[in-house]
Amino acid sequence: MPSDTVDHALLRHHGDVDARPGMLDFAVNVQGSAPPPWLRERLAARLADLGRYPSAAEDLAARIAVTARHGRRPDEVLLLAGAAEGFALLPKLAPRLAAVVHPSFTEPELALRQADVPVVRVLLEPPYILDPSAVPDAADLVVLGNPTNPTSVLHSADTVRALRRPGRVIVVDEAFADAVPGEPESLAALATPDVLVLRSLTKTWALAGLRCGYALGAPDLLARLDHGRAHWPLGALQLEAIAATAEPAAVAESQRHATALAAARAAMIERLTDLGLHVHTPARGPFLLLHVPGGEVLRKHLAEQGIAVRRADTFPGLGPDHLRVAVRDEAAVDRLCAAIRTAPGFP
């Protein structure tokens, strides 16, 4: 039984629960329904290798690809079965007090609480800009997202660096960093002993079903996370996906996608605002946070129309009038806007 009074079920809630099969999905932030054809071909070419265990050489090759992408060394990369595995490993750092900046992705807090790590929430008010002085000095582990899910706020790299203190580890969830053109505030290339960056392949490359990610940090910090993991924590297809998406051509493709996504986001903000919805801006992620009176009623109405949006009251600091919507193409936004206009009580 959990030793705290926080509702762990709310922390475990994710957008996939809101999106039933066949619905138009604004609830999940994965871009696209499947990986691009070239990546599928790379993965399919490895199917014949599934009869053998992944080798240390394959693990090293994937780490070398990641180091070339971020300017790190191979011993500064830990390959993960999705960034979520990185959150699950955080209790191994044995913090005395963990501070989690909210509203943000809830999986890190859940992992820490389930391991009986004391957690303090740093709740940001609109416009959800981080003040480093709001984090208790006693916190020796600080977790935040950048850009932040669900607010779509991008904190400056200087602000994140200002969280550093002797004896403190900063964990930056950069699951959506590659959705920002140029990745201007990323700390992925920062080689310091106290900053741990987690990256995910899930969103940009539509690989939610494969579970791929990695951590970037000091070798001793990564060794503490890696200690006690099972042999072969990643399979051959995961290693191939990590190596493939770190190559220069793939990085260039992801940046083109980020630029197109920024344009789609701007258009979507304008259309939702014209409908009278409050959209939190500036927004830099592949999703938008809405504040709508009667948000729960609207969410249920949209579900009846076959459209899934993410309830946001499961994020600490937000309530039932908050909804999160993924950035989608014009045709999908047409359907969303048409359905919103028919909602009960909508002007």
Short description:
With 347 residues, the chain is of the alpha/beta class.
What do these coordinates show?
With 347 residues, the chain is of the alpha/beta class. The protein has helices spanning 8-12, 37-44, 56-70, 83-89, 107-114, 157-161, 202-205, 219-226, 236-246, 248-274, 295-304, 330-341; strands at 24-25, 77-80, 98-102, 119-123, 141-145, 169-173, 195-200, 213-216, 278-279, 287-291, 307-308, 310-311, 322-326. The strands form three sheets. The protein has a seven-stranded mixed sheet with strand order 2-8-7-6-5-3-4, sandwiched between helices. The chain has a four-stranded antiparallel sheet with strand order 9-10-13-12, with helices on one face. α3 (56-70) runs parallel beside α9 (236-246) and α4 (83-89) packs parallel to α5 (107-114). The protein is globular.
Considering the chains and any ligands shown, give keywords for the structure.
347 residues, alpha/beta, seven-stranded mixed β-sheet, four-stranded antiparallel β-sheet, 13 strands, 15% strand
